[in-house]
Each structure stands twice: as structure tokens, then as C-alpha cells.
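My hope is that you will study the protein record below before we discuss the fold together.
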Amino acid sequence: MSFDLTTKQLDLKARARDLAAGIIANNAAEVDKSEQYPWDNVKALKEAGFMGMTIPTELGGPGLNFLDANLVVEEMASYCGPTGRIAVEANMGAISAVVHYGTETQKRLAADLVLDGDKPAICITEPEAGSAASQMTTRAEKRGDKYIINGKKHWITGGGVSRLHLIFARVFDERGSELGIGGFLAVRGESEGLKVGKREPTMGLRGIPETELIFENLEISEDMVLMPPSGFKRGFADLMNAYNSQRVGAGTVALGLAAGAYRNALNFSKEREQFGRPIAEFQGLQWMLADMSVQLEAARALLHKAALSAGHNGSPFPDPTLAAQGKIFTSEMALKVTTDALQVFGARGYSRNYPMERLARDARMFTIGGGTAQILRTVVASRILESKLPQTRDGYTKLAEIEAARTDLQAAE
């Protein structure tokens, strides 16, 4: 697998860097301070063609791949974390799921909204169902030609600003029998019963709201059910497979934050003088900078490999193992690199007059959001061991019972 960028990709990266170093960088501190959604940045992304990059040409998009999109994400995040996240969710995650699983009507709806500047919201997490996402309690009950959704989501990125929502809920037929977990499309402002709850006062990434979403008899017509190939019974796995694209994107935001911190530290080390010479001449700082560069290159290689894995093994999305490995490594790397880069600045790095503390705060999210580093290690372990690794206390007992029943059935045949 070659990681060499094509001429078109290098040009794309250069265009993204120019935009990021201009209006995106100029707005970054104020976005953090005001905690307001960066609509000016969204406008700039839209005008540059960076919203909906992965949307196929037949739907009006440029039809770029996940690596192309992540090249842009890294550049944006190196100056402004929230703008990097917007670039992720306008090109991966919910929009990817709709493009690959949706009907023509659903695809057109999603594509038009994203190309017009919308950052879709993917609604999975609940107050009591975080890493244990399959334990969600939000219900979608079939009534005639509609589904009625009731429940509450939490930590929904873009709550109150996103228009398109991909809502995950437990599905029940008209007899009350559970069918599985499904995805439902709703547009804020056009869907009664979709309410935005309280906003979390976050440590970092303050330009994007993280909110509750409350569903009170939210009506979703049958034509807005996002039905993956496996249907409701095993559809949750298909829908979560689409989330691997967003997982790679989240890792790329962390990469961008670390890269921005490293760039700042490298430049500062050449300019700042102590004891009559630039601090870059001190071996202790030289080794810190060297270590940062090594970690950044390793993280970038992991994420590029994950992005390029899309389309292999019959899946249009990145390989789950590679996506998890890339996000684990990069999210933890970003914590160290942003902290060490801040250290290079000394007391100035601790000041809000410099971007270093903001980059460090923003990076803190990525070992948590989009799959914690701990749960992703379980994903990787399960894949390399080729075994299910239940997390509930009775999980292994249930697995043993299923295996015993399977053995008895085979013996009977």
C-alpha cells in the first residue's frame, strides 16, 4: 500500500493549508473564547469545496475518497479543532452511511444539505449508554406508515446547529416485538418532536455544541428509515461499520492538533533565546522536538493506511481494526505532543494569549469521543484474537450457552 500522495492530493493539501492559515487561524481564538459555532469558517469551507468532498459526482459532490478528505481535516485542525471536526462530519460518518445505504431520496436530501454547509449529527450516545451503545433505550415504534420515536440522546455534536440527524433507536413492530436497532433520518426545523436540550460546558472544542437531544413523539415516515443490507436484526453492525470513517476522521483531528502544536513549538524554539542563544540549541528540547516528529509521522502513517483501506474486503468503509488502531495511537499521541509542545513555550504556553493551551484542551477529547481508547483496545483485541469479547458480567456464560446449543444442533443433524 503506497502512502505517496498524488499531485492532485498535494494540490488539495496546499489549498487546505492556505485556507487554514488564513481565515481559519484568524478566527480560532475567538471561536474558543465565544463558544459560538464558526459559521464564517463553514462558509469558507463550503466555498472551497471542502463540505461534502466524499459525496459522489452523481449527487453533486466531487467524489473524493476518505484520504483526500482527511488531508483537508488535518490542515484545518492544525489551526482550529472545531473546524477540523466540522470537516470530518461533513465528509464522514452520517453522510457516508446515507450515501452507501440510503435510498435515492435519502441520498439527495443528505447531499443537498451537506453541500449547502450542514454538518450532520450522528445520534448514538445516551445518558446511560456510552461505550455500551447497544444498550440504548430510545424507542422507534411502528404505527402504520410511520415510526414514533421517544427517548433522549446525550453528547450529540452539533446539537442545535446541525440540520440532518441520523438517529439510532431500538425498533419495535406494531405488536410490540423488538426487531433490532435502526437508523432514522430527521431534519431539524422540519421534524416536530425533535428538541435540543441542555448544552455541556466542555473543556475544549468549544466552538461546537455538545448537547442533549430529546425526542417526544417524533414522527419519522417509512421513507426516512435508513435500512442497511442486514435489515433491523443485524443492521446496527452495518451502521456502526459506517462509523469507522468518522473514527479515522476523529483521529485525524487529533493528528492535526498535535501537528499544529509541534509546528508552533518548532518555530518558537528557533526564536526564543535564553542564556544568550536560541533554546533550539539545547539538547533536551532537541530531543523533545525529535520525539514529536517521530510520533506525528507514525500516527499519520496509521491513519492514512486506515483511510486507504476503504473499499477492501467488500466494505466501502475503513477497516475496523485499522480505524481503531489509528485512533488509539493518534489520540494518545496528541495528548503527549500538545503537552510537550506547550512545555517548549514555558510559561507562555500556559497563557491564553498563545494557542498552546487551547490545542492541548482540544486534544483531550479524542481518547474519549468516538470510542474511548479503552473500548477501542477491546475492538482490536477481539479482531486479532478472532473472538468475541463480551463486556457484560454474564457475557461469557451466554456465549458458552450459544456454542453448546450450536453443538447440540449439529449433533442432531
Notes: The chain has a mean pLDDT of 95. The CA atoms of residues 77 and 87 lie 9 Å apart.
